[in-house]
Amino acid sequence: MITQTITASGRQVNRRSTRAGSRAHAYPLMALLILAFMGVSQRAHGADPLATDDPFLWLEDLASPRALEWVASENTKTLEVLEQDPRYPGLYAQALAIAEAKDRLPQPQMLAGAVYNLWQDADHVRGIWRQTSVADYIQESPAWHTVLDVDALAQAEGANWFFAHANCRRPQQTRCLVSLSDGGEDAVSVREFDLASGTFVPHGFELSRGKQTIAWVNADKLLVAREWGADTLTASGYPFVVKALKRGQALADAHEIFRGAPTDVAVHPVSLVDGEGRSLQLLVRAVTFFESEIYLVAGDSVRRLALPAKSSVEEFVAGRLLVQLNESWSINGAVYSAGSLVSLELSALQHDPVHLRPTSVYVPGPTESLGEIAATRNRLVITSYESVRGRVAVYAPRSRGAWSKTAIAVPDFVSVEVAATDTRTNQALVQVQGYLTPSSMWLLDSEAATMSPAKQLPAKFDASHEVVEQFYATSLDGTRVPYFVVHRADMAADSSNPTILYAYGGFQVSETPIYSATMGKLWLERGGAFVVANIRGGGEFGPSWHEAGLKTNRQRIYDDFAAVATDLIARHITSPRRLGIQGGSNGGLLMGVEFTQHPELFSAVDIQVPLLDMLRFEQIAAGPSWVGEYGSVSNPRERDFLAQISPYNNLKAGVHYPEPLVWTTTKDDRVGPQHARKFAAKLNSMGLPYFFYEVTEGGHGSGANLKERAHTGALEMTYFTRQLMD
Questions:
Q1: Cα distance between residue 719 and residue 528, in whole Å
Q2: What pairs with residue 500 in β-bridges?
Q3: In the structure, what pLDDT confidence band is assigned to residue 52 with cuts at 50, 70 and 90?
Q4: Residue 282, class by beta-carbon neighbours within 10 Å (0-12 exposed, 13-18 middle, 19+ buried)?
Q5: Domain shared by 446 and 473, yes or no
Q6: Which position among 217, 376, 493, 546 has the lowest Cβ density within 10 Å, counted as fewest Cβ atoms?
Q7: Is 268 among the catalytic positions?
Q8: Closest among 604, 721, 714, 708 to 88, alpha carbons compared
Q9: Which range marks the domain in which residue 285 is found?
Q10: Is 203 among the domain residues?
Q11: Catalytic annotation on 700?
Q12: What is d(CA 585, CA 591) in angstroms, rounded to the nearest whole number?
């Protein structure tokens, strides 16, 4: 974790809050591309030969009256069925009770020696940003102090504000740049906020709405990447010009320090400060989605660091810069493998940014992958996964650049995530959770390398009759693909069990065990089984697991998923009649591909905020930035492959498809609702059954507030119940 950022919590896409790519706190610089830059304007569409025969191109006009009228009509048709189902009211009541429960585990962030949290409930629809002490946080009922009431702010200003995040300047952490989002979209307005007084700073830094990232240089100077005027956005719609902005300056007077190219994905600044107060500023030029150039900034001087293209800066501690490698690096007669973590001495790289001398910190084994890297005052807390099972260790700096490791025991079949760290001390809060293990916060002392449970979410569903098992399916090319099954211990192997199979399969995102109260209460308790497939495209086994499914190799991902479905059927856990699938964003593309390639395997397909038209994805929202993952129609070989797998283009009349649920949001400024709209419209034109629903707010997720997210979740579970349990 390299930035002091507090993000709004809540159900996003389906299970995690970081979709379209990766976890924000696990791969910070990559995640800034995936998350912070996904607020893309809806560009005008010029003449496009791919659109010549597209009868539903008009639905790409995001806010046209005709398109919105179509959306309203489709929503009405879907709600008249799903909301009128006799089981819907109960499912919605349960989902809302879980969402608004007062005993939820508050997601923490450590700032200025205290714990901060953004909290939404029935009384705080938009949320309150609040604060308590570390000692009080771990108590059953902390005494919270409200710092910023977003509901009151929105009402006072007549605005549709939602809290996006706060970037707080280290080491003092008393001044923050608070980002506010209109209706949950990714584009934000930014204002300087004083933590001590709990007020916005009069005449402080203020930046108008836009796609922007900001790094503190000092109390009176920022580095800002944003749209500065004509021709300052990349083809992907992201900034490529970085300027220095001084306190009191107008944006028009900011001083340019770096300019990338319109062909880049994006350029953004990063500020790093270690526990002793040493600081440095970096610029990350994302030449492609996965390849970057990293520059060291000193005043107006910008010098490139000679790092591999597929690497990312992760942390800064004890004067050492931590770099994750997503490709092997041969240097000084040594080879550092892909998936490793190395450190660089700050003084050495400042003196000579070309001839670097890395030191190995973490090297993965054959079934391991690196999770998160987080700094306390002078230690590193590193999570990793062994066969998709969480591990955690503390790393301490030693002389001559060396590091020592102390492993910390955690339960099996869990994920381990660093929720917050304190760079003033060596404390950290670590979240531990599993499919049947309610989320808990553990207080970690990284200096003593000890960790103990501090706070636990009460069980939200009856797991006493449930078990978790891990199996392996064999894909078409012989690759063994792991998957988890959560089911009743007395489940009969008679192929009759209603089962939801979930996967993501892209952007090096690892699907690790998490506790989903909604899935448990609304599905498992009612006799359903839940499956998570760790297919290629993810990061469960390091960069190679991801790269095996890039671009024209992507069929491997889809074959992996089909292999898991087939294995579930072969084990008599379920059958095509009782098997449903679910995935969002890139996982929504996965759902669309499986829908068109293997309609015989499933009876329900939940397609969430998806990409579906892969011949036009580069023309919609943030599409151009994902060419590194999917390929481009400008490349004939890649276009041919995209044409083969594009769900929108491969729907065929006369095929018996399962009745899908396709849903999106109007304010999704990452993937865009156009994909889902066009797919549903084409299904309709072919006389095929489907459900379509478009949430009016919420960005790239299922709603902007708890009620909206509960509503979407209840619609999904009503749909699965109808399709798989009836």
A1: 13
A2: 530, 580
A3: low
A4: buried
A5: no
A6: 493
A7: no
A8: 714
A9: 249-457
A10: no
A11: yes
A12: 10
Cα(186)–Cα(181) distance, integer angstroms:
7
User: Which runs of consecutive H residues, i.e. helices, occur in 175-248?
Assistant: none
Give residue 9's pLDDT band: very low, low, confident or very high (50, 70, 90). very low
Q: What is the pLDDT of residues 335-361, one digit of tens each?
A: 999 999 999 999 999 999 999 999 999
Question: What sign has the CA pseudo-torsion 292, 25, 384, 317?
Answer: positive
DSSP state letter for 478: S
Evaluate the omega torsion of the peptide bond into residue 171 and state whether it is cis, within 30 degrees of 0: yes
Contact 264, 287 (CB under 8 A): yes
Residues 575 and 593 in one domain: yes
Percent of the chain having pLDDT more than 90? 87
What pLDDT does 37 receive?
Answer: 33
pLDDT digits (tens, 9 = 90+) for 89-116: 999 999 999 999 999 999 999 998 999 9
Q: Is the pLDDT of residue 290 over 80?
A: yes
Query: Which residues on adjacent β-strands are paired with residue 386?
Result: 368, 389
Given 585, 625, 646, 702, which residue is catalytic? 585
Q: Which of 457, 480, 503 is the last residue of a domain?
A: 457
Element (H, E) at 241: strand 241-246
CA dihedral 623, 628, 630, 633 (to 10 degrees): 70
Residue 428 lies in a domain: yes
Q: What is the reported pLDDT for 706?
A: 86
Q: Of the ranges 9-13, 165-169, 551-555, which one carries the lowest mean pLDDT score?
A: 9-13
Please give the pLDDT value at position 704: 66
What does the alpha-carbon distance between residue 554 and residue 72 come to, in Å, rounded to a whole number?
35
The answer to whether 498 and 528 have CB atoms below 8 angstroms apart is yes
Flag whether pLDDT at 550 surpasses 70: yes
Q: What pLDDT is stored for residue 27 in this prediction?
A: 29
Question: Is 253 inside any structural domain?
Answer: yes
Number of domains, the chain: 2
CATH number of residue 537's parent domain:
3.40.50.1820
Sequence-distant (≥ 6) Cβ neighbours of residue 197 within 8 angstroms: none
The Cα-based distances of 407 to 451, 699, 716 in angstroms read 10, 39, 40
Same domain flag for 503 and 441: no
Cα distance from N-terminal residue to C-terminal residue, the chain: 46
Tell whether 448 and 471 lie within a shared domain: no
Q: Which residues contact 590 (CB under 8 A, 6 or more apart)?
A: 503, 504, 505, 506, 557, 558, 561, 583
Catalytic residue among 25, 124, 487, 700: 700
**Does the pLDDT at position 33 exceed 90?**
no
Residue among 381, 385, 464 nearest 426 (CA): 381
Written as one letter, the residue type at 692 is: F
pTM to 2 decimals? 0.89
* 215: nearest Cα among 323, 296, 286: 296
d(CA 129, CA 160): 16
Q: Tokens 């605005």 map to which residue? A: 159
The answer, yes or no, to whether residue 60 has pLDDT greater than 90, is: yes
Q: Say if residues 270 and 315 touch (Cβ distance below 8 Å).
A: no
Residue where the block lists tokens 């919609």: 620
pLDDT digits (tens, 9 = 90+) for 508-538: 999 999 999 999 999 999 999 999 999 999 9
Helix ranges restricted to H, 148-248: 150-157
- pLDDT score of 184: 76
Report the pLDDT value the prediction gives residue 91, as an integer from 0 to 100: 98
